[in-house]
């Protein structure tokens, strides 16, 4: 019998408890929505006291911000993992990123993009959730721009290509979450190839 069904709580170090709560939060926010999910429900599902949750995150807004940041770090990790797998930049690295994107969006547990969800529920640009989501999306553009830096073409064209590639990532994440990986998201890799051909 686990902690959730027995009514007992598992003792963990604070950093492990925080990680566990964020994993539970990720599932609940994606299936129910952020505003529709209360702090008490998160605490019950995670098997922690509400007071412990508030100690870790301060408030519901703090929990949401941590959820967005956690998702951003996870996305950056798979992106950088893809780049590292080919050990070079330029078009080869970009192709590796889109191959990794296809694997991510094709996973059985893929539920969409946390940052896109946060944008939809926190339209106020002054909110931490909105601000962190925007930062996550800008990072993708900037990272593509860095990967294309050594290509011999004007900077304006490299920036345009980076923005187009980021747009394809956004579209694939949104489409795979609603229409599945075999829908429009399956075209992202081929479209990225067209962007690279136009650039070089």
UniProtKB/TrEMBL annotation:
PROSITE patterns: HTH_TETR_2 (PS50977). It comes from the Bacteria. Residues 38-57 bind DNA. Transmembrane segments: none annotated. Residues 15-75 form the HTH tetR-type domain. This is TetR/AcrR family transcriptional regulator. Keywords: DNA-binding, Transcription, Transcription regulation. InterPro entries: Homeodomain-like_sf, HTH_TetR, Tet_transcr_reg_TetR-rel_C_sf.
């Amino acid at each position: 019998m686990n902690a959730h069904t027995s009514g007992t709580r598992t003792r963990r170090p604070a950093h492990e408890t925080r990680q566990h709560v964020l994993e539970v939060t990720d599932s609940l926010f994606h299936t129910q929505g952020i505003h529709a999910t209360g702090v008490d429900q998160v605490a019950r599902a995670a098997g922690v006291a509400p007071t412990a949750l508030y100690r870790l995150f301060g408030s519901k807004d703090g929990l949401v911000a941590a959820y967005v940041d956690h998702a951003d770090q996870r996305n950056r990790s798979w992106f950088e993992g893809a780049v590292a797998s080919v050990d070079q930049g330029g078009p080869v690295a970009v192709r590796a990123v889109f191959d990794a994107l296809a694997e991510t969006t094709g996973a059985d547990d893929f539920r969409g993009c946390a940052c896109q969800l946060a944008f939809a529920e926190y339209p106020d640009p002054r909110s931490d959730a909105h601000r962190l989501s925007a930062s996550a999306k800008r990072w993708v553009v900037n990272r593509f721009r860095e990967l294309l830096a050594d290509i011999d073409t004007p900077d304006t064209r490299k920036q345009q290509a980076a923005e187009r590639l980021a747009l394809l990532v956004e579209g694939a994440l949104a489409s795979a979450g609603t229409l599945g990986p075999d829908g429009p998201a399956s075209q992202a890799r081929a479209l990225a190839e067209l962007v690279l051909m136009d650039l070089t």
